Amino acid sequence: MTKLCDSIDTLSMAYLDDELAEEELRDFELHVTDCADCKARVDGDRARMADLRRRLAPPPAPDLLRARLVRALDAEDASASREMRRQRMNRFVLPGAASVAAVAALAVFVANRPGGSSAALTQEAIRQNTRTAPLEVQGASTEAWVRHYYRSDVAPPRFNDASVHLAGARLASIEGRDAAQFFYQLVTPDGSFELRALTFDAHGVDLDGLEAVDVDGTALRVDHRDGQNLVVFVGRDGYAYLFTSRELSLQQLAGLVVHSDLVSRVQAGRVAQ
Ligand SMILES: [Zn+2]
Prior knowledge:
Elements lengths: L2 H4 L1 H9 L5 H13 L1 H21 L7 H13 L3 H10 L18 E5 L7 H11 L6 E2 L3 H8 L14 E11 L2 E12 L2 E11 L9 E5 L2 E8 L2 E7 L4 E7 L4 H9 L2 H12 L1
Antiparallel strand pairs: 1-6, 2-3, 3-4, 4-5, 5-9, 6-7, 7-8, 8-9
The structure holds zinc ion.
The site of zinc ion has 7 residues, from helix 1 and helix 4.
C-alpha cells in the first residue's frame, strides 16, 4: 500500500477524465504498472464509464435522463467522497448528434422525486403544446406580436445556441389560463429539430407530478410523456415555460433551457436587487 493506493478512488476518476497534471500522470501510470489492485480499479472504472457513455450516446433516447436520475438517487446514500466521485460520473456525456456545445457538461442533481399526481394542467399543457395548429405569426415580428397580443412583459425565450431559431407563435389557452406558444427550429448538421415552448401564468399550479432536478444550478422540472421530452422552467414572475420536443433528448432540451435568456433574466433580476 502506498499513498497512491489510498487515493485511488479520486485518482482513478481524475485519470480517466484526463485531469491529472503531467507529473501526477507519470507517477500514476508508473504505479498502476506494478500495483494490481489499483490497475484493477482503473480497469473497472474505465469499463463503467465506457458502459455509461455507450448507454448515453444515441439520441434521441427519452429514458437517458431517467437513467442518470436513478444513478444520482443511488448516490444519495453514499458517503461524501463517493458522492463527489459519482457527481463527476453524473456529468453528461454529449450525445453524438448534438451540435449544441453548451450541453456538453451539465451537472444534474435530483432535487426530489415526483410527488402527487395533480398533473391535469400539465397534461393539458403538453396536449396543447403537441397539437397541430397554424402559427398566428411567423418570423421577425413574432416578439412584438407576442407583446401586443399576449402580454407586454412576456417575450419568447432566446437561446444562446445560435442554431436555434424562433419560427413563430400562436395564442393558446390551458384550463382557462391564457397561454402563448412559441415554435423553434434547431438546425444542426444532423438535421432540423422542432422545439416548442408554452408559457402561462403558473401561480397556484402544482408541478409536483414532475421530477424536480437541478441542472447546472438551475431548478427545472422534467418528464417524458406521450413521446415528448418535457422541461419546465418557472420564472420569478411566476410564469411557467414548458418546453417540449419529440426529437431532442432530455439532456439536449435541458441544456438549451439552462443556457437560454430565461435563466440569465433571472440572474439579472438577482443582481438588480
Ligand atoms: Zn496501488
